[in-house]
Amino acid sequence: MPSPLRDPGELSAWLRLVETPGLGRSSLRRLLTAFGEPRTLFERPPAEWARVVGPQGAQALGRPPEQLEMLLERTRQWLKEDRRRSLLLLGDPDYPQALLETADPPLLMYLWGQRELLRRPMLAIVGSRNATPQGLDHALTFARSFSESGYCVVSGLALGIDAAAHEGALSAAGGTLAVLGTGLNELYPRRNAGLAMRIVEHGLLMSEYALDTPALAPHFPVRNRIIAGLSEGCLVVEAALQSGSLITARLAGEAGREVFAIPGSIHSPLSRGCHALIRQGAKLVESAGDVIEELPRHSSMPRDDTPADAALPELAGAGEHQRLLAAMSLEPVSLDALQARGGWPTEQLQALLLDLELDGLVARLPGGLLQRRMRG
């Protein structure tokens, strides 16, 4: 298939096809199966279209989208501005095979960054936007381990777990791929714009939506099928019972991918989604090695069997600090409960907790709760 950059007519035909209102992706794929390429399709009479998608579908195809010329010029200019920008078309040689084999592969995707990452094995990490400090730590450390194992870490650039997963992969100088629910000119959320630019440098941004598509709620569950489809497995770090992360996990399972979940406190709403997945058959994991060993691709990474609740590093000359850590589990706990467990005077307990916070071993949660943290 010729490159859209070398053949503006082909680019115009692709954009006209994917932006035609009233036709779903399954109808568009049937048209491509029947006619081969969009330009060939539009050279045929409408009666032939109707035999594939019916009279209404043929009528929709006969009306070019109102903004087609503007979209074409905008896309051509965007591609010219940065050599790291490209389009990925259904049928391209480097279209990921895993995604191609899913029930609903995208027809056209906009790419910005290191396109060669499409040839890497991929693992998805997803979870809550309102993650706990411990959840963020888990996402970062698991992503770092996956990256060191040769996997490209896939997520959705959202706040919370997604961002931590991208950061973890970048910290290991490994690749990470962010699938957006907006156009690539409308990075969302804005707070992650700096992270997105670092991903352009060392990873890849991907979207099936036209460049200036804003953040629309229905788009995010739809893009989750791409995160699931690209990946050999999907790890859910923290998730409420009603969350987009569980949608991604369900889509991964339906696509025949391995689904993994990290267990958490029975008192935390953000653990309930993971516990529900485990009850439904997801694999409970405590280390990156638990994930890697379940995947078909062998890795050279030494297995990390350190459990999520392993003993924390010693603080030199700090016996009371160690005693306080021993009194805390990974479950959130109140100040009063800690005081009852250890008998510390309030002033001393506050001082000990402050030291541990500064050392990254304790986090304060909403509602006055405290939680022990694992350091990667």
Automatic annotation (TrEMBL):
Pfam family, one: DNA_processg_A
Limits of the DprA winged helix domain: 308-368
Domain Smf/DprA SLOG: 87-295
Superkingdom of origin: Bacteria
Family the UniProt entry places it in: Belongs to the DprA/Smf family.
PANTHER family on file: PROTEIN SMF
Descriptive protein name: DNA-processing protein DprA
Organism: Roseateles flavus
Gene: dprA
